[in-house]
Amino acid sequence: GSKGVEHSTNPMARALGQTAHAVTVGVKASGASTGGVVAGGAPVGAGIGVGQGGLPSNTGPHPHALPAHVARARLPPNVVVAHQEEGIEVLHLFSGRTLCKMLLPPPGLHVDVNGDGVVDHIEAHGSAGGDGGGHAAVGADGHAVPACWAQATSGVPAREHLFNGSICRGASGVTRHGSRHMNGEPSGGYAANAHVEVAAPAVLRRGEETVVRSLRRAVKDMVFLNSRGEVTCYTHAGHRRWLQRTEASWARGGGDHASLTTLPLRPGGAVEVVLAVGASHATLLTPSGYKLASLRLPAPPIAPATIADVDGDGLHDLVLRTRTGVYCWTQRSHPGFLPFTFLLGALILGMSAAFVTQLPTADQSGRILRSTDYDEGSVGETPKDR
Known about the structure:
Layout: H1 3-6, H2 11-24, H3 28-32, E1 48-49, H4 68-73, E2 79-84, E3 87-92, E4 98-103, E5 109-111, E6 120-125, E7 137-138, E8 144-145, E9 149-154, E10 160-166, E11 202-205, H5 209-212, E12 220-225, E13 230-234, E14 240-245, E15 259-264, E16 272-277, E17 281-285, E18 291-296, E19 306-308, E20 317-322, E21 325-329, H6 337-357
Antiparallel strand pairs: 1-2, 2-3, 3-4, 5-6, 6-9, 7-8, 9-10, 11-12, 12-13, 13-14, 15-16, 16-17, 17-18, 19-20, 20-21
Protein name: FG-GAP repeat-containing protein
Organism: Mantoniella antarctica
InterPro entries: Integrin_alpha_N (IPR028994)
């Protein structure tokens, strides 16, 4: 039942499949009656997925049978992938039985950022006393980390240290870069960052990566948001690409629902943008760190932002729950912008040509002639010449 999962390119799905192989043998009969097997091979994060396996046993050979991957895509969902604080758990949709689970160290983001097939752990730490008792924060590798610091490790459990880096500006406005300490001993930090909070990190897929790699194996960047509204982007190798100051900030203790996410502007789009949501503003940033749009929120949010195509125009919209109600911001496409630009350029060229042809004529000595200086009998002869 889990063979399709074991050969998946998704590292989390492959690890789950290795755990689920023995479990799904006894549950496969109940899954067959629902139109599919029970091992969840859908990408982690799909919520409800379909196991990657064969068709039900009552489906015999047919001269016009669909390809296997098309047939699997049309099967009804039969598993639920639950994201919990301790990790990921796969549940059988119709019986509620736990098929398999994968423990992941909280908090942080668990994703393959460098495309090597191994799960990586991305963490963001705010003030050193983040636990409320004044104790230093501890990363996934068990080492203490300074305030306003990002850390990336790899492996389940974490065995390899990828990089460290600061995600805050210093008191003088300068950001110190972190270094790749392979022994997991970070350095740096700022005393001015002792009371900075951070949101959960997110990964940003660049558009050019989809050309040479699949969506699962693409190399991704990591973005971080702190309570000052500063958004920092790091590569998978630990090099800071950009840091942008936005209005998506919040006061101390008010960042329960501040969020940072990435999304394509249209469903299935190759290029993703960054959405940073604070207490009073939300900001959209391009993959290069430029501000795309800034939204003023009518009230502080009480839940993470929801991204969906609400009006069915093929563009993603933003839905946000606040203290005063649910609000939606929609995108508006401008299909006639390119033709309008072309016509405007042609009009400017025409006006320039007309202006050049209407310039006043000069005589041989370079003196500009007026219309009253011309004689009907001799063009170019002035009254003084006569």
